[in-house]
Design goal:
By secondary structure, the protein is mainly α. The protein has 13 helices and no strands. About 70% of the residues lie in helices and about 0% in strands. About 25% of the residues are buried.
């Protein structure tokens, strides 16, 4: 067989094998995205045909919807607390689990297990933990003479309770940090110790630079995840005073408010516009992370 015929045959086989993915990508990702963008330019409400409004939904969202800015501020505070705390806890636990001790694999499994628990189940568990009268947390505080707040039923504490709930699922980032730590050459630590570096100096000048790509990866995923909180906020809202919790203290714009608008009030056109704002915001933050990451992420290659 001639070389041109062989290359053509290989190309045909290649596209034949990848065609299911391409078809699925076009049908279930690109197609819905195009449809949602079109809907975002209409006043579609399911029960009646949509009318073209152009950028009217976006204008109303940015200038005439007070809940947009309310939920935006909540999401900003939530993200500012959850992302750094989650990364620090995951990294700290990974450093502890990176020790060469007997039975360490058992501890790694134990710390990772909460991540496997479904979001709804873990949220219900935390609702009981935060229960003001019979919850484990307030009962524990009462033992040391501290009267705990109403947590999820208190407008001043609901958001912070949500942050505490989010820290429960650090297992995924922990495993990635652990993999990065195990890839740091021991010779670098030995050289640092010969130069007289203490434990903190070894971490800051050897460990962190070597795992900075892993840290950056977890930072990007954590940012995206913080912007898309839904399950926990929805369960908390249903278990409390209603969607959004007390005074909408847990009304996260990016998914919960979007869900309520689209599927409770059936404002699909407006909800599609909110979804595109979410997409563009995540795209902007991810791009910003990559730009800033060039200054501190070290790639050995």
């Amino acid at each position: 067989m001639k070389r041109g015929g062989l290359a053509r045959r290989q190309a045909i086989l290649f596209y034949a094998f990848v065609s299911p993915w391409i078809i699925g990508f076009l049908a279930f990702y690109i197609g819905p995205m195009i449809a949602s963008f079109y809907l975002s330019l209409t006043s579609y409400e399911i029960i009646q045909p949509g009318e073209w409004v152009g950028l009217g939904n976006y204008g109303l969202l940015l200038t005439g919807d007070s809940l947009f800015w309310h939920s935006m501020s909540i999401t900003a505070v939530y993200s500012a607390l959850r992302i750094p705390l989650g990364l620090l806890i995951a990294l700290g636990i990974a450093l502890l689990l990176n020790q060469q001790l007997r039975g360490m694999s058992i501890y790694r499994t134990i710390y990772f297990l909460p991540t496997l628990l479904p979001a709804v189940a873990s949220s219900i568990l935390w609702v009981w933990v935060f229960e003001p009268n019979y919850g484990v947390l307030n009962n524990g505080l009462a033992l040391v003479g501290v009267q705990g707040p109403r947590w999820l039923g208190d407008v001043d504490w609901a958001l912070y309770a949500m942050v505490i709930m989010s820290l429960w699922g650090f297992g995924g980032a922990m495993i990635i940090f652990l993999a990065g730590l195990q890839g740091v050459p021991r010779t670098l630590y030995e050289a640092a110790m010969i130069d007289g570096a203490n434990r903190w100096a070894r971490f800051w000048n050897v460990t962190f630079p070597m795992i900075s790509p892993v840290f950056f990866f977890n930072l990007v995923l954590g940012t995206i995840g913080a912007m898309q909180v839904f399950g926990e906020a929805y369960v908390v809202g249903m278990a409390g005073p209603g969607p959004g919790g007390p005074a909408n203290a847990t009304l996260f714009y990016y998914v919960l408010y979007l869900y309520t608008t689209a599927f409770t009030y059936l404002r699909m056109g407006y909800g599609a516009a909110m979804a595109w704002v979410l997409f563009l915001l995540i795209l902007l933050l991810t791009g910003l992370n990559f730009v800033v990451g060039r200054r501190w992420v070290y790639y050995a290659g």
